[in-house]
Amino acid sequence: MLTLPPTVTPRAWDRLSEIGATAQGKALRVAVEGGGCSGFQYEIALDEPKEDDLVLEGSGEKVVVDSVSLPFLANAVIDFSDELIGARFVIENPNATSSCGCGTSFSI
Fold first, then answer.
1. CA 70 to CA 30: how far, in whole Å?
2. Domains in the chain: how many in total?
3. Is residue 1 included in any domain, yes or no?
4. Which GO molecular function annotation, any one, does this entry have (predicted)?
5. Structural domain for 101, as ranges
6. Enclosing H/E stretch for 47
7. Could you give phi then psi for residue 17, rounded to 5 degrees?
8. Is 39 left (phi over 0), alpha (psi -120 to 50) or beta?
9. pLDDT tens-digit map of 21-40
10. Does the pLDDT of residue 100 top 60, yes or no?
11. What is the pLDDT of residues 55-96, one digit of tens each?
12. For residue 38, how many other CB atoms are within 10 A of its CB?
């Protein structure tokens, strides 16, 4: 299987534009950290890009992934969900073998 960097959906780019992340000098940081009920968890925040980050750009906005998190997010899709239960950025990760009910924790 070909390993590709994560992709960002048009919905996610639109939400970042609504937030005005670039105007604040920020990007959406998507990282993977140890922890959570399944072993790893996603950390999603507005942050300043760093030198070793992979920078994805679209619609005048940026999404950044650090070099340690990148292998865990290969071929993943970063999306935005706006439902009755809440609005949030979500990760569709083909590398995850299982995940918890809330969708923020996973195992590989």
1. 9
2. 1
3. no
4. 4 iron, 4 sulfur cluster binding
5. 7-107
6. strand 40-47
7. -65, -40
8. left
9. 888 889 999 998 876 665 77
10. no
11. 999 989 999 999 999 988 999 999 999 887 788 898 888 877
12. 17
Which residue type does 9 have?
T
Q: Is residue 94 exposed (0-12), middle (13-18) or buried (19+ Cβ within 10 Å)?
A: exposed
| Spatial distance between the Cα atoms of 71 and 27, rounded to a whole number of angstroms | 20
Question: How many helices and strands, by DSSP H and E, does the chain display?
Answer: 1, 9
pTM of this structure: 0.84
Would you tell me how many other CB atoms lie within 10 Å of the CB of residue 71?
Answer: 11
Residue the block writes with tokens 């992934």: 65
Q: Which residues pair with 89 in a beta bridge?
A: 80
DSSP code of residue 13: H
Coil/strand/helix, residue 92: strand
Q: Which two tokens stand for residue 80?
A: 């935005």
Confirm if 40 and 104 have CB atoms less than 8 A apart: no
Rounded-to-integer distance, Cα 106 and Cα 108, Å: 7
Within a domain: 42: yes
